[in-house]
Fold:
Amino acid sequence: MPAIGLGTWQRLESADRAGGAEALVEAALDAGVRVFDSSPMYGRAEQLLADALRGRRSEAFVATKVWTPSPAEGQQQWARAAGWFGGRVDLMQIHNLVAWQEHLPMLEHARDAGTVGLVGATHWSAGAFAELATVMRTGRLDAIQIPYNPLENAVEREILPLAGDLGLGVVVMRPFGEGGLLRADPGPAALVPLASFGVQTWPQALLKWILSEPRCHVAIPATSRPDRVAENAAAGRPPWFGPDERRLVSRLAGAG
Ligand SMILES: NC(=O)c1ccc[n+]([C@@H]2O[C@H](COP(=O)([O-])OP(=O)(O)OC[C@H]3O[C@@H](n4cnc5c(N)ncnc54)[C@H](OP(=O)(O)O)[C@@H]3O)[C@@H](O)[C@H]2O)c1
Structure:
């Protein structure tokens, strides 16, 4: 069943600066969000997330990452995350494929021990998708995290078909192109054909466009605002778009 998660890059620290990191995570859980994505690259986000989940950790599926060229530091990042998230991380990913050959054995070992649920790898750049495909073909991953939205659709060529063939979980980063796609908001009248799909806003149209691709399982929009968490989460419920609705959203987004 496809789902909306919550990304934490920059926005969780931003919520914290406004005094509301806990309120944001609470609002997400209350809206039915279960997948929370973080990384040691995101400043204090991992720790803020762990603090905010205290008391409700069992409701969350925590996805975080190792991000370092050093195997020893990767081990430390993993151990620190395990400590923060109650001894277990549900999805541990190799961020931007950094030193993936070095980190994979450590993550596989943790998966065997049951302290990591799934092992994944991420990359944001189409220039790295050939390498990502190589890692996928090793058969050692359970999931990937890739960018996908109407204007960033390079994954349609090789990565999504391969993920489908291999049965991998697919987490979608950058659903709003870091916010840039939201500036193309076509307004309520243009969204009327999508109302019967439960879509009332442009962010919801973009999120449902992603989750209506059957090889995508979770989209992780980042927001610092609790009201937007609920708005985004509502796009994680069926009915899903067919080809006509997906084409409409692509056209509204300005895809060629
Ligand atoms: N290499 C990697 O592994 C990698 C790379 C990039 C991203 N990621 C992951 O993917 C997540 C999402 O990607 P992203 O953070 O680049 O960008 P994004 O989710 O595409 O866009 C985030 C922007 O959208 C705004 N926003 C969110 N919901 C909104 C709504 N309903 N209405 C209006 N504005 C809204 C946010 O601002 P407000 O805070 O003002 O709402 C923020 O500026 C990251 O947080 C991270 O977890 C991973």
User: Anything to note?
Assistant: The beta strands are 3-4, 6-7, 35-37, 61-66, 89-94, 116-122, 143-147, 169-173, 218-219. The CA atoms of residues 71 and 103 lie 6 Å apart.
